[in-house]
## 1
Amino acid sequence: MSKRFPFSGIPSGWYMVGTSDELRPGTVLTRKYFGTELVLYRTEQGVFRATDPFCPHLGAHLGQGSVCGEELKCAFHGFTFDTDGKCTGTPYPGGRPPRKADLRLYPTREFNGMLLAFYDALGREPTWEVPDLDLQGSPLFRWNSFELNSHPQETSENSVDIGHFAVLHDFMDARASGELELDGPVLRSAYSVKRRLDFLGMPQRGVSAEFKVYVHGLGYSLVVASVGSMAQLRFLIMATPIHDSRIHLRVGATSSTFRVPGVTQLAQRIGLHFLTLEVSSDVPVWEAKRYESKPALAHGDGQIAAYRRWAEQFYPPADGADGKVMLPVAS
Ligand code: FES
Ligand SMILES: [Fe+2]
């Protein structure tokens, strides 16, 4: 357990493990996440799966395997596995596949150009989902990414940390514009903000926007930004644990559509530029900070204590406890 992040390891949840276009049909990819490796593969017909890396037969790395039609084939002795993880065959004459030789597959989803896998330290099945967004004709998200020493609970805390908007992000004004809603694994909040436009070379100008924030577990944050009546930008901030104190943070943006050719893509690029710039301001703070279990909260800080209590649900039950884990939270 890291000193800087005294959490009980990696929280349960849906995490982005790639973009759809990184995994072509018939290919196999290895990714370092969740303190281990995952082997991602896509069958010839397009089914995406993610599995533990080691073959249940004699432990070969399945990242060296290949896709044959709808099956994954291990490179060592040629055992094959279907998309349910079942071992379907061995190359031995007349040999039946051993009963125990099934893959441990992660629950997976593929939405909005994202590959998602569900992590749970105890191997429990997901009891909740992340949304398949209706993009209403908007282009798929464009992405940038960061790798840093942090934790998904720390990066998601940003969505309720209203105090840092003005100081770190240079917002001229930021106010909560609705109640914080905590609804099972979903957290919703809303802000009215005014942002200087110096990042577009217009230092004297500001633009007002309404941000609606939807956090689904600790790995998936959606921000819907309405900029006057001009445009609606959607941002995704996706933190995936590499291990318990390092994350791969992807940030994505898309824009509502404009009739004039090329303007939608331009708005999307400006949106991604803005988001990348904002997150670039957070990154050095996240990298260097530690988690304050007993923060000296001040009036005006926003709903940090409520967020921390909500986040407790994503940790596995402590030994011998009845489904509750003790996390340090503010009183
Ligand atoms: S180790 Fe995979 S088939 Fe033998
Ligand atoms: Fe921030």
## 2
Amino acid sequence: MDEFITSIDLGTSKVCAIISEIDKNRQLQIVGVGTCPCEGIKKGIVVDIDSTSKSILYALEQAENMANMEVSTAYVNIPGGYTKIIRNKGIIAVSGEDKEIDSEDIERVLNSAAILSMPQDQHIIDIIPAQYIIDGYDEIRDPLGMVGIRLEADVDIVIGSTTTILNAVKSANEVGMEVLGLIPEPFAVSESVSNKDERELGVLIIDIGAGTSDFSVFKKDQLKYNGLVPIAGNHITNDISVGLRISFDESEEIKRKFGIAYTPLASDEKMLKVNPIGIDQKLSISEAQLSTIIEARLGEIFEMINEELIKNDLKKEILTGIVLTGGGVGYFPGSKELAKEIFNLPVRIGKPKFIGIDDPIYSTGLGLINYSLKRKFNYYIEHNDSEVKKSNSSKKSGNNITSFFKKIWDEYF
Ligand SMILES: Nc1ncnc2c1ncn2[C@@H]1O[C@H](COP(=O)(O)OP(=O)(O)OP(=O)(O)O)[C@@H](O)[C@H]1O
Ligand SMILES: [Mg+2]
């Protein structure tokens, strides 16, 4: 099995392309990585196709040069807050005389589950089987080859705004890339920063990027809730810029070099110099002063997420704790301590464990690859591991993200 999978993460601050290979030893290898700053994406959404395409092209070229190969297909992300998940049910009579369920039956039951009335500006992105029921016996993950008369499927239908979908896909198409699937970020990120046990028992994953803070609760290995706060790393930089009256670029630089997210960890004595706009002299500020600004904004994001969890009675579901990821939170010393104080739950930082992408900004990019492997081939990779394992079922269930996406997508053309 020599398989190459490419992902394109469309982020508010950067586009990232990752080319991966499953080698002969069933290890996932990252063979190419490229990133490019992007001006065409605001709050995770493509607002300028030309500019986004250019960033995709540069990021891909870097990744292709590193991998020494050309790619033409990729999986692309869509921010979680812009998608909605609807649980629906499909029922069919098994067709064959021997009543053995084949891939056509599975496709038929999934298609019947996908019939629902939707607002005109929304479109189906994906259909994810949650469980199959054969003649009343539930919790079946893969019915292929089993015998029964009536086949039911409970599915999660992922829908998203048509404009958002079209613009993301068009940006990739402009540079000759075919989009094999659009993957909502919570599904992607969870695959790269958490393991199955955590998702089974209950985990909260918070991905704070540049423009959006996505959060999702997983329980019984399924997405139970996901939300989005439209405040993230850029707002922290902006606050520093306004608070100290310095340029955005200088704020970004000092945030990265000296930023601490939890004031008890910052020093009153350690001083740094900044260049306020319109003043000739440099100004001295303490590490603690800088930290106060960062803590206030990050704390606000955590508080907003916490309130939404309480309002929806979700805190009791989070048995294993919180995983923080994304560039807006993953680098700061003290972000764990701040989150622990606000949520009163165990916290850890999540990032990919692969050399070259061992950073919280790559969680979505790697996650897109992991998730597509899981859906496309029924393979999975544990967090902290690079071995590609086969799921319990040895057969291909027809539950293939590519075929569904293609089918849905073909309706547009
Ligand atoms: N070393 C660092 N210290 C602090 N913050 C950092 C550091 N490096 C990057 N960041 C911040 O990370 C943010 C970008 O993170 P990320 O790449 O995860 O976001 P994105 O995917 O582009 O955006 P989004 O997910 O919101 O669409 C920026 O706000 C940037 O300032
Ligand atoms: Mg992101």
